[in-house]
Amino acid sequence: MKCATGTPHVVVTRACPTFTACSPRSAEAVVLSSLMAACRGWPTGQTGVAPSLVFAITAIEGVARMSSVRPAARPGSVTTVMVLTWIVALFSIVAGVILLLASDQVVADAGISSGTATTYGWTEIVIGVITALVAIGLGNGNNFSRLLVTLLMVVRAALSVWVAIVLWGHAGFWSAVLAGVIAVVILVMLWNARANEFFRTN
Length: 202
Description:
The chain is mainly alpha-helical. The chain has 2 domains: 9-67, no CATH class; 76-201, no CATH class.
């Protein structure tokens, strides 16, 4: 039986099958080598079917079907959100470093104490690192990262609506509206059909 790349096949010898895989390091090879172990000790001249043969063949077919599923390519909408998340992460880290390196005179001119500046600086760096990890997760199709960004954007949109109502007719109204629109656009980018397929298959 001809072997396609990454697809297991079965070679029957006597009453007990020998299972092989095209790639010895593939996931299929690991499963099949375990199934081979179940056949050891089956008598050479024994007729009938090895005790776990039916299960073994079913498992092989399942692995073959799983190996045929290919992850979807990352859509442009997810890439855009990932890049924006990276930008936010880098700005946060840079802001934190600037606060840590700022002189006492600069900090005093800003109206905050040196201790407060240090605390803010490290907080910005930690938030930046976490945001960078979320960006990496988005790029790899991690659903937890998508859910985390979704939660943040839902909160942002809700706050923008509240601020817009409070500031109706005053300065800051359009800034709140813009922030809310950006949050909604990001949600659409993360939950369209192509994005759903990408996160489902990765």
